[in-house]
Amino acid sequence: MMLEGVFTALVTPFRKGELDEAALRKLVERQLAAGVDGLVPCGSTGEAATLSHAEHARVIEVVVETVRGRAQVLAGTGSNATREAIELTQHARDAGADGALLISPYYNKPTQQGIVQHFDAIARATNFPLVIYNIPGRTASKMEAATIGRIAEIAQVVGIKESTGDLEQVAHTIAATPDDFAVLSGDDWATLPILALGGAGVVSTSSNLAPEKIVELLRAFRAGELAHARALHYELLPLFDILFCESNPIPVKAALALGGFIEDEVRLPLTPLTEKNRERLQRALKGYGLQ
């Protein structure tokens, strides 16, 4: 699996509480038209935590069917239960995804050794490209750089989505892993700094809304057009900020709804964007010509 460039962490559109497959297919086509390198269904942005197993499976199937090999599909299959993560990953593999994105186990608070064994067990059971996901703000369990170095020795583990918000952690992770181990930014604001440290790309929430701009930033950096990449970073920074003014994906789904792409529906315990932040969001979107 070639892990490089822009991977959009897709929202999961709902209509009257049910999965809106037609809207999901349109979102995928919009991303492909913008030139993204990959799509990530059933991640945090996709509200995987509140999808039933049947819905989770169907979202991945719809995305794979719609992509038809035009980009890579990195399916979210993580769980705090190793057996469940294996089952979800096996389904993604059999559905035709290119790889799986797995959050480190949350709630259980495993030791670093437990985290290593968790991913090793999934790798052995699935024989499928795996990308691990370090986001201690959601898991209460941080993978240390040395631990990531050990996990990178597992043949099937090809990269990491890094969302610690700590550039020193990112630098030590890159130093601890092989050259062909891809480090992807999991935070839009950190994309350019992580690229500068040697990262391979980004799993982006903001590209749900402005995929062309995120793709342009990555391509500018790869082409050595650093001033242009930096200018795009600062142009997009206010958008990055407003899309995380409340818990993800509340703001980005509200923004997509304002653009007429989806219904403005999130599942409890998430709640709709507050009116104060909705007004801020509308002003920001007008400034970007996105509304």
Strand segment tally: 10
CATH homologous superfamily assignment:
Aldolase class I
What separation lies between the terminal Cα atoms? 36 Å
Uncertain spans: none
CATH class (first level) name: Alpha Beta
- Return the structural class: alpha/beta
- Assigned CATH architecture: Alpha-Beta Barrel
Choose one word for the global shape: globular
Strand coverage percent: 5-15%
Order of helices and strands: EEEHEHEHEHEHHEHEHEHHHH
Number of domains: 1
Residues in helices, as a percent range: 40-55%
Strand order of the largest sheet: 1-4-5-6-7-8-9-10
Largest sheet: 8 strands, parallel, barrel
Number of helices: 12
Computed over alpha carbons, the radius of gyration is: 18 Å
The CATH topology annotation reads as TIM Barrel
Mean pLDDT: 97
Briefly characterize the structure.
The chain has helices at 21-34, 53-67, 82-95, 112-126, 136-139, 145-151, 167-176, 191-197, 211-222, 226-242, 250-258, 275-287, and strands spanning 5-9, 14-15, 18-19, 38-40, 72-76, 99-103, 130-134, 157-162, 182-185, 201-204.
If you had to describe this structure to a student in words, what would you say it looks like?
The chain has 291 residues and is α/β, with parallel strands linked by helices. It has one domain: TIM Barrel (Alpha-Beta Barrel). Helix content is 47%, strand content 14%. The protein has 12 helices and 10 strands. The strands form 2 sheets. The chain has an 8-stranded parallel barrel with strand order 1-4-5-6-7-8-9-10, surrounded by 6 helices. The chain has a two-stranded antiparallel ribbon with strand order 2-3. Helix 6 packs parallel to helix 7 and helix 9 packs antiparallel against helix 10. The longest helix is centred in the last third of the chain and has 17 residues. The relative contact order is 0.13.
